[in-house]
Design a protein that fits this description.
2 copies of one chain form a homodimer. By secondary structure, chain A is an alpha/beta fold. Chain A has 17 helices and 30 strands. In chain A, the strands form 8 sheets. A 5-stranded parallel sheet of chain A has the order 3-2-1-7-18. Chain A has a 5-stranded parallel sheet with strand order 9-16-10-11-12, with helices on one face. In chain A, helix 1 runs parallel beside helix 10. Chains A and B meet through helix 1, helix 3, helix 10, strand 21 and strand 22 of A and helix 1, helix 3, helix 10, strand 21 and strand 22 of B.
């Protein structure tokens, strides 16, 4: 058996190594058009920022590793320039020599990845505008950033000119994962950073209210945000620096521009091979990573996957899924019955000292599907026991089925303890957990690491209170129509008040029930929703109609309606 | 309805608050014989160590909170001195006044906790010997530790006597959670610390090879370990300091002694009430936390619980389960059908910069039950992408069913990323996960937080390789009988060698197969087991009999046999 794998990063590399383990006698050729295989593209922003110091650290496995340990014929700077599905062969161009050779295959695996979107805007090819996809990209960005210092290295001790030419102002176009990681890393290098984003939020997979928290956090770290404004073009001004021009007519000065608009599945090979692509623009594969041609497999960022929660076809370009898909393609080629269960979109992104993470379905995705059988809650628990130093507030949004309590999705932002929680939610979603299961989860607790009631338990308890009708809830978008009761203490109201709300601090509530209307729904507010829950219980059991406003004041400022 | 809750920490406090939310009209009395309710006993070691500065920080909720927010008649320094099951009443002694009053109940909830074991050894009542259970305990320890400084505060600038009388040498008796936390906190205060433990390992719930790693780590932090040696008594020597005398005849000098030998369920109240206790010495309850008397409930460290994985009756004194049990008792009293699913023993303990955590069954527990349908693996992955700074090696042991792949237990030690992994395992065990599910788990990954193949995935893959017969394994305890092949590179052998092993570095293996015996099982060694896996695949497919020695050299030094 002869297998050709096109693309030697993540999915392709995993496929090659796994296939060799499953089949010692197969002939395996792995080609990549770039200079490296199996490099850490997720590490590129951190190499630019300097926390990953050496470029060589990004090279997870080399051509030599693949040859020696896996007996894989590994070829870099080698590009597929033609595919014949009928004759089952590919044409390979060696970029070192320019030679084109033909190789036959029994099975072909496509792992070409996704390419950064580079719209044909005026000035997009000006020097100083970069994408962040490959090791050479990162090298060029670093060289550009160090240029000023290097040029003036002989004279900076007495002229002070260095500050004139060394890049100081960066504009990042696009607020997705790469954009946010680049912001942090450019700021880390001391640059002034502006983020220009066409949409009304950063991190498109996130729900807008969680994105708003991210936006505020980024702004507090000195980044200028320009949302709702598309880039219209770029121009060089007389001093040699750039301007990023936007649809709204603004011109943002820049010494360097990072394009992080998003990625698009590489489907040129699929077109050559005549295999099917889907409506999302990716290569269509079955559960076994087989394309419409049974001898051709595809894995990684180039393929469409089923969303594990919603069942939708999706593009979810993440490294973990790419690796698993590579293994599954290898298993299937080796004659095993492996299947891919879909992608649930578990992701995390470091933003300065914080992390934003999510897993499963967003409210956006559910709304897009017209799904109304869900409820959402917002929690703001401490990352660990509040009495132990270093506890930070987490902001958590959890989505679950109203009809059966099934956990659908979670989004978590915070400066501490985010991975612990998102992975619990991720495992829970994989296993079809309900929010009743979350109530009972037994997660690790010691004061430095958690709480006796972990935020994940707490999410389960709040959701279960709703589904058991112990705590009807309301959302800020709905508070216009009810009687507002604020159960916080007066000093808290002095900081931020809700106009029109009656204030009865929780400890006084039982004695002051006669101040409340019995013919009207009472919407109860506190800081985070906890005291309002206690108040809701008191009122319901005293014959009032009451609802807890989900997430309390902490949700108000970023609620969709405000 | 009138409910009396005895014990106002963790289980009792949770029960009171939950019961009020479920039933606004019940009369709820919560009593505690100590001066505080709802204090953070898990924080006591950190208060002694100084990271939790103020004693008041330990008071999570006060009597006033319970009165005002929950309308609970909360009484401290109030002890139950008699229970009549027939008349359904308790006698309460108010320690402030000495008065004894009688209160009737409809339902009684016992949450007395567990008491530190204090064996009747010679000298155990000498000054300077402390347990760590209550806020006053911690206060006394702090005062004792600060005594020297306080006594000499007026003169320490010129005499230097302070160093003579301020406690410098601590002996901690018992190497469980509290013992280890106290070690860290005493060392943090600058004391020289000796740990004396009767057993041959610290942390009894851990398996011995994982405990050995903890022991090494603690010793590297300057703590003197005296295992396998029971304390025989204590004596005061002429300079006023103490000596801890052991069964082996040693005398360990000490300026302070911490007794952390373990805890024993408080069953005095159960005896008064005439309710059943189990063979483990705890109060017996059903799934609804009901004792043998249907009007009396019991929760928390005083009760025996079913081990969620093994089904055994167990004593698992942990805060999370105590809280959940309190809620369940409240639900049941309020007429709901809540049930406790058992305890899986998820726990974590900070030890200097590291954390040791576990969940589910240990190998010890399975052996004790005569269960042989399990396999174990050892992994040593990075806590996050190795190319991103700060990655630390994790040591992970995973136990799973041989027959069906069900995950049974996990133990994780490391300086980074431990909570993320143990909680994934904990959630997986709760949901009945198999190791095949772990292969497919989609956990969060970005270079600072994980790897594209998370350690949890990696555990699933290794275990699945075994169960699919892709990788037969062996353990160090079995390596005496086979042909040993070491596939590491020569520089690695120079550091640590296995005598009698043939060395063929992995890259040369395919060319040197003729050096290997075909009539004998070949046991393959590398550093962590990964290259040995690759080698196992090569040999098996070439007709050899081969096994991977689980965990490689990293497991050798702490394997049970060595």
């Amino acid at each position: 058996m002869k297998v050709i794998i096109v693309g030697g990063v993540a999915g392709g590399a995993s496929c090659a190594a796994r296939l060799r383990r499953m089949n010692e006698s197969a002939e395996i050729i792995m080609v990549d058009r770039g200079p490296y295989v199996s490099y850490a593209n997720c590490g590129l922003p951190y190499h630019v920022g300097g926390s990953i110091e050496n470029e060589s650290d990004l090279l997870v496995a080399t051509e030599q590793t693949f040859r020696q340990n896996f007996a894989v014929d590994c070829r870099t700077r080698c590009e597929v320039v033609g595919i014949s599905s009928e004759r089952k062969c590919v044409e390979l161009k060696d970029h070192a020599t320019g030679d084109v050779t033909t190789e036959s295959f029994d099975k072909l695996v496509l792992s070409p990845g996704a390419a950064p979107i580079r719209p044909p805007l005026p000035g997009i090819d000006l020097p100083g505008i970069f994408s962040v996809r490959t090791v050479p990209d990162a090298r060029q960005i670093k060289q550009w950033l160090e240029r000023g210092a290097a040029d003036l290295s002989g004279m900076d001790s007495y002229t002070g000119f260095q500050t004139v030419t060394k890049p100081q102002r960066a504009v990042v176009v696009g607020g997705g994962f790469i954009g946010l990681e680049m912001i942090e890393n450019l700021a880390h290098r001391g640059l002034e950073v502006t983020l220009v984003e066409r949409l009304d939020q950063v991190m498109p997979p996130l729900d807008p209210e969680m994105a708003k928290l991210v936006q505020r956090y980024v702004e507090r770290h000195g980044v200028r945000l320009e949302l709702n404004d598309a880039v219209a073009g770029f121009q060089q001004i007389p001093d040699g620096s750039l301007e990023v021009l936007t649809a709204s007519g603004k011109a943002h000065p820049a010494d360097i521009v990072i394009l992080a608009i998003g990625v698009r599945p590489e489907t040129a090979l699929a077109q050559m091979a005549g295999i099917e692509t889907g409506e999302r623009g990716g290569i269509r594969v079955d559960e076994q990573m087989r394309t419409s041609n049974p001898d051709i497999f595809a894995v990684g960022d180039a393929v469409e996957v089923r969303d594990f929660v919603t069942g939708e076809w999706s593009l979810i370009p993440l490294a973990g899924p790419a690796n698993r898909q590579g293994r599954i393609a290898a298993d299937v080629i080796a004659g095993r019955d492996s299947r891919y269960r879909g992608t649930q979109g578990t992701s995390i992104c470091q933003i300065f000292e914080a992390a934003i993470a999510q897993t499963g379905a967003s409210e956006k995705a559910l709304n897009r599907l017209g799904d109304t059988d869900f409820e959402k809650i917002f929690l703001y628990p401490n990352s660990h026991a509040g009495y132990y130093p270093g506890a930070k507030m987490l902001a958590i949004k959890v989505l679950f089925r109203k009809s059966d309590g099934r956990l659908l999705g979670a989004q978590v932002l915070g400066e501490d303890g985010v991975p612990k929680r998102i992975d619990s939610f991720a495992m829970a979603i994989q296993m079809g957990c309900t929010i009743y299961d979350l109530e009972e989860s037994e997660l690790c607790y010691a004061p430095p690491f958690g709480s006796a009631k972990d935020p994940v338990n707490f999410a389960g308890m709040v959701a279960a209170d709703i589904l058991r009708d112990d705590m009807p809830i309301s959302h800020w978008s709905e508070v216009n129509n009810g009687f507002l009761l604020d159960v916080r203490n007066p000093p808290e109201l002095a900081v931020e008040n809700v106009s029109g709300a009656l204030n009865i601090p929780l400890p006084e509530l039982r004695e002051r029930l006669d101040e409340l209307p019995r013919d009207q729904e009472i919407l109860i507010i506190c800081r985070s929703g906890q005291r309002a829950y206690y108040a809701t219980r008191i009122l319901l059991q005293n014959g009032f109609q009451a609802r807890n406003v989900a997430g309390g004041m902490l949700s108000r400022s970023h609620a969709a309606s405000s």
